[in-house]
Design brief:
This protein has 92 residues and is mostly helical. The chain has one domain (6-90). The chain is built from four helices and no strands. α2 packs antiparallel against α3. The chain starts with 5 loop residues before the first helix and ends with a helix.
Length: 92
Amino acid sequence: MRLSLRGIRHFDLLIIVPVVLLAIIGLASIYSVGLSNIDTKMVFFYKQVLFFGISIFIMLFLSSIDYRFLKSYYKIFLILSLIFLSLVFVFW
């Protein structure tokens, strides 16, 4: 597994910018709801900000991984995906 900065430098801005804008709009909505409700004390907003930060970090990390090494593991990923997909029906 090889890490490189090639993936970080070549982001597709047509995909990243709308996603980040939607996340910011969602954070603003949650923030305004948190201000109007004294009982929540902004807990949902802080959780959302935390998960947004974690997801940005994961995105940067995964974009720096050379994805071509995953070709040899495609059968494992396919089986795991089908198992998780079937678990949705079991626990729904």
